[in-house]
Amino acid sequence: MNPQTAAKETTNQANGLDIEALVGTVEAVKQDPSLGAFEFRATNQWISGGENRSRIKEFYGAGSEDDSRTVAFEFTNGEPPVLLGANEGANPVEFLLHALAGCVTTTTVLHAAARGIQIERLSTELVGTIDVQGLLALDDTVPVGYEQIQIKMDIEADCSNEELDDLLAFAKDHSPVCNTVCRPVPVTVKRAR
Fold first, then answer.
1. Where does CATH 3.30.300.20 sit in the chain?
2. pTM, 2 dp
3. Which fold has domain 90-184?
4. What pLDDT, in 10s, does the model give residues 138-166?
């Protein structure tokens, strides 16, 4: 049975997720922890000025190279005019907010389903503050990146306020993007030779 057929035949869903597949995935990783190792990849090509384009397609996960994507996702990074661009696309720090919002939302929905919580409505608003003096090397005391990011989640679910607060705290702590942003992660930059 392929995943598409399984999804059509399954009626046990919560928050748009197949609970049987969720349980099966968790059990498979418990039995073979190596299935939990994923490697996501992106390539990027500079176009001009602040414009560049990222391409995302291939990744490794669940023990093999994934072949489910026939077409790559492409994202254009740009800058607003005040930052010397022409609004070719959202800028990279805005894409970071997008990634953070998406990951915290998905993590919330996933763990709500695992807890038997039905989400009726969920939206987020993110605000990140940044001072470009750090980027421009004008003041060494100013951080180069975001100084803080606030996520406001507007959520309605069939559980108590205490359960909802616990779910949101758990989602923050278990969102891969949030966790990556909140802790030091080694990043190397080197020339391709």
1. 19-89, 90-184
2. 0.87
3. GMP Synthetase; Chain A, domain 3 (3.30.300)
4. 999 999 999 999 999 999 999 999 999 99
